[in-house]
Amino acid sequence: MELNEKLFKALANKTRLEILRWLKDPENEIHVPTCVPISEEIKDYGGVCVSDLVNQSGLAQSTVSSYLNLLVEADLLIAVRHGKWTFYRRNEVAIQKLGALIKEEL
């Protein structure tokens, strides 16, 4: 991983940072009613449904989707598609590398 503009752009927004924080511990951080418990989404689909993140943030679906896409492009999130639904989880390996890189470079 290298320090680049796309990565820092992804981190330069409060809601995108909150999404990363919520997905660090989604069972305890996402406090909205869901059709399927968060723990089952993670177990069955490998992540959290975009609608849960929309409800948590209170923002429009299109806004949250653009934020999620930017985080995926920056390699901070992993998107897993199941049918018409997309589920998101943190890319823990990339986040660990980012922490080490910041410590080393900055």
From TrEMBL:
SUPFAM superfamilies: Winged helix' DNA-binding domain. The keyword Transferase does not apply. InterPro entries: ArsR-like_HTH, HTH_ArsR_DNA-bd_dom, HTH_MetalResp_TranReg, WH-like_DNA-bd_sf, WH_DNA-bd_sf. Pfam families: HTH_5. Keywords: DNA-binding, Transcription, Transcription regulation. Gene3D superfamilies: Winged helix-like DNA-binding domain superfamily/Winged helix DNA-binding domain (1.10.10.10). Residues 1-106 form the HTH arsR-type domain. It comes from the Bacteria. GO terms for molecular function: DNA binding; DNA-binding transcription factor activity. PANTHER family: TRANSCRIPTIONAL REGULATOR, ARSR FAMILY, TRANSCRIPTIONAL REPRESSOR SDPR. This is ArsR family transcriptional regulator. It comes from Limosilactobacillus antri DSM 16041.
